[in-house]
Amino acid sequence: MCRVPSMMRSNLFAYGFRSSFLLAGIAAMLLVPMWAFSYVTGISFGSSWPPTLWHAHEMLFGFIASAMAGFLLTAVPSWTGEKGFAGRPLVILAGLWIAARILIASSSLWPALLIAAVDLAFLPALGILVAWPLLRSRSRNTPLAAVLGLFWLTNLIFHVALIRDNPPLALHALHVGIDIVLVLVTVIGGRIVPSFTSAALRPLGLVNAVHNRPALTRLAIAGMIAVTLSDVFWPDSRIAGTIAGATAIVQAARLLQWAPWRTLRQPIVWVLHLSYAWLPVGLALKAVALWSGAAFAAFWLHALTIGALATMILAVMTRASLGHTGRALIVDPLITLAYLLLTAAALMRVFGLAAFRLNYPVVIICSALFWTVAFALFVAVYAPILWGPRADGKVG
User: pTM of the predicted model, to two decimals?
Assistant: First the structure.
């Protein structure tokens, strides 16, 4: 009777992406409907944190951090040529992540310092695992460990702000944390989107359809770093708006050189372009909002979080889980539906109030419903893949 669960546990911690991607999917599936229900009904789930801060923190340092861990734990062995992470370190990481989610969800029962200590332990533990092979191999990706440290710093500031009863500072820290993840999307997405697109178009005879000009790469990364710094020192200012607008133009130009219109028949590829497209859209909306206060641009932050970050995460998790379990890179039709539902969630959350003339609770409910079904489909399709053996019989 115990044999099957034991095999499932073994497979689940056989490679870095497995447990982290599954936890990210489950978190996404549960956290958003919990927030939407709490917002609409006013019923609390036991956290003493302000509801908006709880929601934002858990999406960033729960859902996104788990997905980020899965990516790094899988990519670092590929970058360095070293053995992949497996076994006890992954169990410890998963345990820390789960413990933090439980403590935060029931924060009214625990000392704030205990909650902070457990929550703040996850990223350093991840950093220790990935930094050593990066340093040892002198990988060009080693600076990403420093970016991970800056991301952790925003979480530290968040907890200090909460303990000192300073919600504006806590929210500011979360916004900067989002910016840091967007820098990572710009760097990593700028590699995988053109690479995967070229690989997909090559069998069609489109060998030179995708370009990747170094000047645009440098400008896009510099622009996102400037966006981050502007949000640190001049948040919600016209300076921040100007930098966001200029970076939006660069990001749009960068995307166009990857020929997104060539990928429309391959969902596993076009979803990468779709997620990256939300970057210039979100930055442009931010520029409009900070310069003019136009109502249609007010929810620019969700264009960047749901549109760019969550869609890129779903795109990478669905692709990497197939490739690293020895399966063909063809997504299930239900996952194509999940891509579309997540896009609908972003459109509803960003434009539902101004463009669709819906009242705010309806926007929240509809967007949460689209999001929840999208990630429920991911969990339903990918849970057996993530806890099951590789299709090709190999280890990992």
Answer: 0.95
What tokens does 190 get? 């700028």
Could you say which DSSP state residue 142 is in?
A: T
**Interval 15-30 mean pLDDT:** 97
C-alpha distances (whole Å) from 21 to each of 80, 88, 178, 323, 359 are 21, 17, 19, 14, 34
What φ, ψ does residue 110 adopt, rounded to 5°?
-130, 155
Nearest Cα neighbor of 265 from 223, 320, 349, 206 is 206
For 30, the token pair is: 């549960």
Which of left, alpha, beta for 243 (phi over 0: left; psi -120 to 50: alpha)?
alpha
Q: Is 231 inside a domain boundary?
A: yes
Is 260 in contact with 273 (CB distance < 8 Å)? yes
> Considering its fold, how many domains does the chain have in total?
1
Q: Report the alpha-carbon distance of residue 343 to residue 348 in Å, rounded.
A: 9
Q: What is the CATH number of the domain that holds 62?
A: 1.20.210.10
Name residue 118's amino acid.
Answer: V
CA–CA separation, 284 and 246 (whole Å): 8
d(CA 282, CA 287): 9
Which one, of 261, 266, 257, 274, lies nearest residue 203 by Cα?
Answer: 266
pLDDT (0 to 100) of residue 9: 61
Domain that holds residue 15: 3-387
Q: What backbone torsions phi and psi does residue 146 show, to the nearest 5 degrees?
A: -70, -40
- Tens digits of residue pLDDT in 280-333: 999 999 999 999 999 999 999 999 999 999 999 999 999 999 999 999 999 999
At 255-273, the pLDDT tens digits run 999 999 999 999 999 999 9
Q: Is residue 312, in this structure, part of any structural domain at all?
A: yes
Contact criterion met (CB below 8 Å) for 259 and 210: yes
- Residue identified by tokens 């861990």 is 69
Q: Give the CA distances from residue 55 to residues 4, 122, 166, in Å, rounded to whole numbers and listed in that order.
A: 35, 18, 17
The answer to whether 59 and 84 have CB atoms below 8 angstroms apart is no
- Burial per residue of 238-266, b for 16 or more beta-carbon CB atoms within 10 angstroms, e otherwise: eebbbbbbbbbebbbebbeebbbebbeeb
